[in-house]
Write a structure and sequence with these properties.
mainly beta, 11 strands
C-alpha cells in the first residue's frame, strides 16, 4: 500500500511561485506525477517523473513554468510552480503508478488527498 501526502498549497498573486511537496510511504519505486482539478472541470495531467527522476514530462499549459523533481532517498516528489496564473487555480493531486509513467488518470494507482492552489489576479 502506498500513501501520498501533499503540502505547500496556498493563496498567491499572479506571477508568484509556490512549491508543492508529496511525501510517499510504502514502496518507493513508482512513477509519480501531479494532476489538478479546477471547479467544474475534469482532473488533468500536469507533470510526471519516472522512478529514478531521469525522465520528466509536462502538460503544454505549464511547460517552462513548472518543474517536477524527486528525492528518491526521501521518497518525496516536488512541483516547483513559477509565474503562476489565475488559470492555475485548482486542487493539486499527487499521483503514483506502477507503470512507466503517470501521464493520464487511468495510469494512476494511488492518489493523495490534494492541496489547494489559488492564484489571484
Amino acid at each position: 500500500q502506498v500513501q501520498l501526502v501533499e503540502s505547500g498549497g496556498g493563496l498567491v498573486q499572479a506571477g508568484a511561485s509556490l512549491r508543492l511537496s508529496c511525501a510517499g510511504s510504502g514502496r518507493t519505486l513508482y512513477s509519480m506525477g501531479w494532476f489538478r482539478q479546477a471547479p467544474g472541470k475534469e482532473r488533468e495531467f500536469v507533470a510526471a517523473i519516472n522512478w529514478s527522476g531521469a525522465t520528466t514530462s509536462y502538460a503544454d499549459s505549464v511547460k517552462g513554468r513548472f518543474t517536477i523533481s524527486r528525492d528518491v532517498a526521501k521518497n518525496t516528489v516536488y512541483l516547483q510552480m513559477n509565474s503562476l496564473k489565475p488559470d492555475d487555480t485548482a486542487l493539486y493531486y499527487c499521483a503514483a503508478g506502477r507503470g512507466v509513467r503517470v501521464g493520464a488518470v487511468h495510469e494512476v494507482d494511488y492518489w493523495g488527498q490534494g492541496t489547494r492552489v489559488t492564484v489571484s489576479s
